[in-house]
Batch of 2 targets.
Target 1
Amino acid sequence: MGLGSIRIRVITSRDEILGMGAEEKAVHLAFRPSDRDLFSLVKKCPGIELLQLPASSYEGLSKFIKMYLASSGIHLVKGDVSGHWHDLNNYFVIPAYVLEKIKELEVQGRTEEEIICEITNIRKISPDMILHLLHSSFLASGPEWPRINKI
């Protein structure tokens, strides 16, 4: 059984948070969120597991909000959704072949740096996201995959 793709919901404004479904597990905020926006997001999507922010927004987060997200079980990563057109699709997709390649390189004993270099040559995914995927249980085979939106 192969790995499924990961769908990351891309949110471009705080107004979109109100219309989100509770089933979202992975979200990219393409705007600079306030603490209030992040609290709203966690309330609206109680099962969120992964939150990606552009580097500038990530660096601007307070220590308190980073601790709050971590204690809520939300993994915070830095990065962009390069090449994504929000007007065409609300989701940025990390295809199954990328996940399979990460797992293959890990099995080969490649270093994190080598894996990041090779994956970023295949697809524009942030190094932090690649590290998250590498160290998450998502790449584990079997029925115990995490609940991140897979297609």
Note: The longest helix spans residues 96-107.
Target 2
Amino acid sequence: MNRPHARNSLGKVFVNELFSALEQLRFDEKVRVVVFKSEVKGVFCAGADLKERAKMDDAEVGHFVKRLRNLMDEIAALPVPTIAAIDGYALGGGLELALACDLRVAASSAKMGLIETTRGLLPGAGGTQRLPRCVGIGLAKELIFTGRQVDGQQAASMGLVNHTVPQNSEGDAAYQRALILAKEILPQAPFAVKMGKLAINRGMEVDIASGMAIEGMCYAQNIPTRDRQEGMAAFKEKRPPQFIGK
């Protein structure tokens, strides 16, 4: 993300550009992992573009917030794993974008918060639903009701991020750690990873019995893959598997 004059805030044009990028990623079979990072030092995403928002009437605001929600849903629905590299401020919609990712890595100095109530708003791009799944209902309510900001260390202790790292002089420590995490994912069987993500995401939406049925359907799709056969052969032959994603 590289909108330096507005701290990567989510304005109409920027949101359209993100939709276009997601459309390309969704159908690129060579993509194994997606890392969301900022090219703007000290900020991941400052949230909604409130200067632009102030010029909208009520109907326009409702339409745009719905579009933001759709954007976060599109990020969450990418078939491959996604990692948010939070090297600076991730506030409001910026944190909601990170929450839409599968995994989050933050610099210890990063600041995160759903601060909408401090602006007379409430999270409208999935924050009220995704935050409780990370930190639990009680803590999610506390963070949203107070609009509190937390740093990377606090975020890790409450389960908001997977990893926290000290910031470096280049200001991209979270991104560098996210790359290490991505490289751990890359050698694994791509189709199995995709099915694992699908089983988790869909299973969380239903009761455990239905979730087990979803897992079974995902597993059934993986059984006839060449990668599964390669994994079994590699195990038998005591060699590293060579997965191709088919």
Note: Residues 190-237 form a domain with the Lyase 2-enoyl-coa Hydratase; Chain  A, domain 2 fold (CATH 1.10.12.10).
